[in-house]
Amino acid sequence: MAIKPATFTLAYAIDVLKEHHLLREIVHGRRWTLDASDLPGANEPVGSITYDTRKVEPGSLLFVKGRFKPEFLDGIDGKGLAAYVAETEYADRTKAIGIIVEDVHKAMSLLSAAFYGMPDLRRGSLPQHLPRPHQRHRTPHLRRLLPLQAPVDRQQPFSGARRRLRSP
């Protein structure tokens, strides 16, 4: 996986998309490329990410998805849009950098996780199939799982680990 910089930049976002084979093209004006190093502001930090054109701030990354009307991009350059991620290019509507991808939903999932520092990797050591702390009856699930994680004695596979957990 691409090494995460101290701040989320367009160059890093493009590296993540390349790594997952989602990047199709990068559009800036009349120029189409796959190299992010020549783009203006490629190493500038991205301030925010959004899929709502009304919430665009200076330095934002916009995801264009769903039933998006190109008219929504009219006047967005005045709001300071840094780049947009879409499956089609909108160079006729904005001067922002266009990151054209194969699947915008997959790209949004990857880039938003990267933007927020991969929170799924920091979740903790509990397996994913266990209930979260706010749910009820977590202890029976942990009791059931503990013998499975304990080292197995090949001579006596049922050595009483379950009995010890049930006794007071």
Write up this protein:
This protein has helices at 10-19, 104-115, 138-149, 161-166, and strands spanning 23-28, 31-33, 48-50, 60-63, 81-86, 97-101. With 168 residues, it is of the alpha/beta class. It is globular, with a radius of gyration of 23 Å. It has a six-stranded mixed sheet, with helices on one face.
Amino- and carboxy-terminal Cα gap = 47 Å
Percent helix, as a range, is 10-25%
Overall number of strands: 6
Q: Roughly what fraction of the amino acids lie in strands?
A: 15-25%
Low-confidence stretches are 157-168
Q: What's the gyration radius in Å?
A: 23 Å
Task: Output the number of helix runs.
Answer: 4
- What is the mean predicted local confidence, pLDDT? 76
Structural class: alpha/beta
